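**User:** You know discrete backbone vocabularies at least as well as I do. Would you mind producing a protein record, from residues through to fold? Write it directly below this note and I will take it from there.

**Assistant:**
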Amino acid sequence: MSGCIFLIGMNKTRPESGCLICSEDLVYLEEKAQMECAICNETKWADAQCQSGHFICDQCHSNNPDDWIEQQCCKSTATDPVQLAIELMRHPCVAMHGPEHHFLVPAVLVTAWYNLKNDFETKKQKLVEARKRAQTVVGGACGFHGACGAAIGVGIFTSIVLDANPLSVEGYRLANKATAEALARIAERGGPRCCKRNVFIALEYASGFSEEHLGQPMPVQKISCEFYPGNRECLKRKCDYYGKS
């Protein structure tokens, strides 16, 4: 499994050495000790921590973003896709901008959908399919193809939960409607690109779409963006999510 070399949420590069959280130097312990990982919160054996006391387990050090998203969604019990997306985007492997958001959107929607139905085994199978489909959406599709991957992610989610395919009738209609209307909302906000903003737009739209067209209420929390300091192109007060609480 390859390590990450992406930008993290607060406009820093992943440090080549030192702590992933604060970049402080590591301090190696004389004896191994059990510590709680500062990222996944699991207690594991540690042989080092940073000068500020952060311990990060080997798995969190080596995760790539799609691995992280799939792993966390498989074990999550969240029913609010926005809440789950924010938690996932805080991980250092998830860039400020990047194609991992193309998987993140259908992943959190699939997770919330099947958690609401208490169908956790089907959720795991559908997450694998969502990842496979999302990885065909290239980076930069928003600007180069005129089709943001976050909006396509809503269509992927819809297709998956309806078991739609190219020969479906109603599933075909709804999957394309979901993508088209999510994309229209993203287009209305204009550029430049912000993957975090587009994720929020897509998930807010998907929440209403799920209740209206799929018969499954999926309420989402009010969104206040915490990632804007890492975005040099942030629209600031022109963005609906900037500075809100």
About this structure: The radius of gyration is 19 Å. Confidence is low (pLDDT under 50) at residues 1-17. Residues 170-189 form the longest helix (20 residues). Residues 64-238 form one domain.
